[in-house]
């Protein structure tokens, strides 16, 4: 009878815990990917150096752990080496305003920034550029799908990672293969954010300013919204908030241990005098969705000067989380840095008339303000952005 009572109590506690997690996270999960049984054919290469005010990280973006099978049903791409270089501040400072990783705010718009890079050189990118209404004319970018929802199939492996059309492997959430050595007995730095602040896995000091206090598992202050979405199901989502969309979650101050950027100020082994630091948590958002500092342009994914006419060019060169199927929707415009990588064939740091394509070819003379027959980075940065198509016109065409 005593053993039976114990079993009932254990079952009740387990059930209560699971229900509490379900109520907080819904369909959000960091443990739902395909099995990781493959060893990358290329060797992981990453360097980190400090030069003056800047930390420079170079990487081939090949993970140093087992991965899932790619291509797979949800992701048709194959892992390949990249040539990545990130420059971030060594002594970052908080900005007056936070910056969202999404162009139009929390859960709205195309990705504006990758969040950061893990110490193994693989980028951390919480957003997925997938929206309500799919890729066509009915797409509603105000409702971004949550990449870690079990209702969204991006072909992620057990590391909450998959591969972009460029061949770049990247994490959307807790990178299990990389953090497997974390035992919960100490703080473990796992990466750098785009604004230069460090990133740790979920463990930290119970008293953030006391290195002698116990190590505890820190939790976010986000939870699922209660009730139902107000959309009609045609132009905007309806139904119960269940974690399918980023905006199904809300931040509640002091609900957990962390702020809206999934971080806090405190002492760490690497920063004994204290620093702001972010945490990767196993509950939403896993990877943070805001920067407290100013993110480096090397992590920008936003809309560059090519306009919609450069969409296919950018997708083929850099890719995003969209599969090769169903790409009828509008693509984020490439940045100036991406343009130079795409078109600067002789790598002289400027674009000639023979190198440019798309809208740049059409507006070359207007952008070439000094009329020397070349487009420099400064001229591209100052170039006027083309107007988006007016309502009623077909998206994806100019």
| Global shape | globular
As a whole number of angstroms, the C-alpha radius of gyration is 22 Å
The major beta sheet can be summarized as: 6 strands, mixed
Arrangement of strands in the largest sheet: 6-5-11-12-18-17
Uncertain regions spanning at least 5 consecutive residues: 4-22, 303-318, 322-332, 387-398
Task: Output the structural class.
Answer: alpha+beta
In what range is the share of β-strand residues? Answer: 15-25%
Number of helices: 7
Mean pLDDT metric = 84
Itemize the secondary structure elements and their pairings:
Blueprint: H1 2-25, E1 46-51, E2 54-59, E3 84-89, E4 99-100, E5 116-118, E6 123-124, E7 131-132, E8 140-144, E9 161-163, E10 169-171, H2 176-179, E11 189-193, E12 198-201, E13 203-205, E14 215-217, E15 222-224, E16 249-251, E17 263-266, E18 275-280, E19 290-291, H3 311-317, H4 336-343, E20 351-352, H5 359-362, H6 364-367, E21 374-375, H7 377-382
Give a verbal description of the structure.
By secondary structure, the chain is an alpha+beta fold. It folds into 2 domains: 1-302, no CATH class; 308-382, Orthogonal Bundle (Recoverin, domain 1), CATH 1.10.238. Helix content is 14%, strand content 19%. The protein has helices at residues 2-25, 176-179, 311-317, 336-343, 359-362, 364-367, 377-382, and strands at 46-51, 54-59, 84-89, 99-100, 116-118, 123-124, 131-132, 140-144, 161-163, 169-171, 189-193, 198-201, 203-205, 215-217, 222-224, 249-251, 263-266, 275-280, 290-291, 351-352, 374-375. Strands 6-5-11-12-18-17 form a 6-stranded mixed beta sheet, with no helix packed on it. Strands 1-2-3 form a 3-stranded antiparallel beta sheet, with no helix packed on it. The radius of gyration is 22 Å and the shape is globular. 41% of the residues are buried.
